[in-house]
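Q: Convert this sequence to structure tokens.
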Amino acid sequence: MKKFVCLIWSIAFAMNVMGQNASTSQKKPTTIDPSLTKVEDEFMNRQSAYFLDLIEKNLHTHPPLMETPEARMLTLYMLDAVLHDKYAAYREPVQKFFHHRIDQALTEIENTKVDSGIKIWKLYNIGFIARTKSVTIAFDLVTGNTPEAIGFAIPDATMERIIKQCDVLFISHRHRDHAQIEVAQSFLDKGKVVVAPPQVWEGQEIHSRITHLKRESHTKQKLALKGGKVNLEVVNYPGHQMSSHENNVPLIYTPEGITIAHSGDQINEGKFMVDYDWIDDVHKHHQLDIFLVNNWTNDILRIAKGLNPKLIIPGHENELGHTFDDRVPYWGDEKYLGLEYTQLKQTYPVLLMVWGESFHYSK
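A:
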């Protein structure tokens, strides 16, 4: 009798497990977008592939220019449409497009010698690389790692080659779409300099190896690179992003005399209206050539007037780690976000760039 009861319990347990497995397999999504049928989801993949192929061709025909032609603007708007699919980062055509753009940039970086001026490459988010004759500077360099979207991030081997080309990494603040510990660790292991606010990886072993410049308005500080062979002069402005986040805004003098600043996620509202105390006066102390600015910051026109750059290059468009309503598009979404792009473009030269594109600036 005991054996019979045990047998019944074993069968019941096995059937329960089988039922759970069947239930699990039934719940397993068969589409990238769970709200779509398989046929609908496959259509979205095909449409993304078709549009991105056209976008790639048009970007090649119409590269970044100080005056953006209508054909290029329409191409950027089409890219907005593709990347505002909620599940864009999950889709293979988007991943292939992203990797291809970064591979193109890497090939160009590895084979470009700058004899005059400065060349800027836009990578992901507000990640940029800037090269002059003597130095290559990286800002907020990340792979674009979105844990749920497996396959989107820049591959490690590609990132290692990018890092090899750079002399220094500036990290604006501690958010993961601006600061990635594996990237910083690779810079340091190669004997390169990493500059960040004290909050970044505070309490971790890597913290003591990072350079923490004084967060001080208008004051130039020396930063030695390449074992002391190259020196930068850096003004490390004490910016903020949200109530508890230090956000460095470095203004850098290259040995060639070209100046470049990077905003990170600088934002000015509430208690941080105090940041305008230094923002409004930057132009009185320094002449700025290029300003790499987060495209969603509020009162961007006032910030531009404070720094008064000769060229503005926005970043942070279509950050796929954000919800799709918070991926600021190239068309601006000014009314909803309270931005001032129309006025900005009427006042300053604004250069719009896509992942992997480059622009050579001369004084």
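Residues 1-28 have pLDDT under 50 and may be disordered.
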